[in-house]
Structures are given as C-alpha cells and as structure tokens.
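Help needed: design a sequence for this.
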C-alpha cells in the first residue's frame, strides 16, 4: 500500500472530483476538505486504483462495493448535521466512509459482517494514522448495544425495513441515515425526539443489501 500513491496525477484528479461534488450540491466545507484529503485509491485493489477519483461505485470483492463519492459526501453531510460526537456505522466495507467520518467526529464505531474486508479496512486506518475508530465483526442489524447510545447511526447497506434495534440505540435528538428498500431504495433520515421518530426521505439510491449473519 502506498499513501503517497499516484503522485501529481492523483492530486489533479482528486481536485476534479471535489469540484464535481460541489456541482452536485455538496456544500459543507469540512466534508469537501476531508474528501480532498483522503486517498481513495488506498481503499481499492491495485488493479482498480486508477479509477479511484471517478464519481462511481467500485468493486471491493465479496460482491460488495465502495460507494460512489457523491453518496459518501451526501450521507456524511446528513450524518454530521447535528454535530454528533459518537457515530455508529453499519457496513465498514473498504473503510472509506469510516475514514471520512473519523476525520470529522470524535469517535466512530463500525460493524462489518465480512471479516477479510474488516481486516483490510483496519490496515488502512493504521496507514492513515486514524486512532478513533473501533471495529466489530458482527451482524450490524443488531447495532452495537454496549456502546449505545449514538448521536448518529449511518448504514451503508440497504435493509427492506428500518431495523428497530438501530432506532433503539439512538440518543435523544440522534439521527439514523439509512437506505431502505429492495429493488427500489430511498435514502432516509430518521430523527429521534424522546420516543418519537420522524422520517425524511432524501433521494433514490442503490446499495448492496443488508444481509444477516457473518462471514469469516
Ligand atoms: N461504506 C462502505 C460500503 C461497503 S458496501 C465503503 O465505502 O466501502 C456495504 C457493506 O455492508 C459491505 O461491506 C457488506 O459486507 C456490509 N454489510 C452488509 N450487511 C451487513 C450487516 N448485516 N452487518 C454488517 N455489515 C453488513
């Protein structure tokens, strides 16, 4: 793995990606800066690294994908809207979304069901010097009860319905950012006030499904 990576070419293409995100309506300066500072190519296998700064989802093995940068930026904005200190992420995957969140919040807890993906992500966090991320190999539909409540929960795989366990692990005022649905999915924000939950639909999205159980 090479943090310096692809050098000047990478620097230019990275800036082009940031401009594209701005044009797509991403306005939060902190989010744009974190994305500009994050080497997306280290989250991919070498054979795909040259496509790292395209605004597309890319395969990471095990039938999973690293999300499209626009969607990462959008979900990060939504997750950080109430300035959460403690965030839970379901679906670590490559760790790219995790690493962006970790640059912008105090503590990030992230759950992944596929062990080899989790291990690769862990190495990337070490390489980036990120020390505020805790990882767990488990079925994220159960959340992370011992570390709850969370000010924000972000889910990067789509369940058919919002998992109740995740709602119950939100702090008062906390928010759940989650794609929901099967063939057609909507990105939603559920906000907790006491024991009431309000729902906002953001836009249509396409995520891999949230799957039960774990893979070693
Ligand atoms: N945020 C990731 C996206 C990875 S794709 C990235 O940017 O790379 C979604 C991830 O969710 C996959 O790694 C998949 O294994 C994981 N996943 C799916 N169902 C899960 C579950 N029930 N618990 C934990 N992780 C799950």
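Sure. Designed sequence:
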């Amino acid at each position: 793995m090479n943090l310096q990576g692809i050098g000047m070419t990478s620097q230019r293409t990275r800036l082009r990606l940031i401009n594209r995100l701005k044009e797509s309506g991403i306005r939060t300066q902190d989010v744009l800066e974190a994305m500009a500072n994050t080497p997306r190519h280290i989250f991919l296998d070498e054979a795909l690294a040259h496509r790292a700064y395209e605004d597309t989802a890319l395969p990471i093995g095990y039938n999973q994908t690293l999300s499209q940068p626009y969607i990462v930026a959008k979900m990060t904005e939504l997750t950080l809207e109430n300035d959460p200190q403690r965030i839970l992420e379901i679906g670590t995957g490559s760790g790219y979304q995790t690493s962006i969140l970790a640059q912008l919040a105090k503590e990030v807890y992230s759950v992944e069901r596929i062990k080899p993906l989790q291990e690769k992500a862990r190495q990337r966090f070490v390489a980036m010097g990120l020390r505020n991320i805790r990882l767990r190999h488990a079925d994220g539909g159960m959340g992370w009860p011992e570390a709850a409540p969370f000010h924000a929960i972000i889910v990067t795989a789509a369940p058919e319905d919002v998992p109740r366990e995740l709602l119950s692990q939100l702090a008062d005022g906390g928010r759940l950012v989650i794609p929901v649905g099967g063939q057609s999915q909507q990105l939603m924000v559920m906000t907790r006030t006491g024991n009431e939950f309000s729902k906002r639909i953001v836009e249509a999205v396409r995520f891999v499904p949230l799957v039960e159980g774990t893979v070693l």
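The chain has a mean pLDDT of 95.
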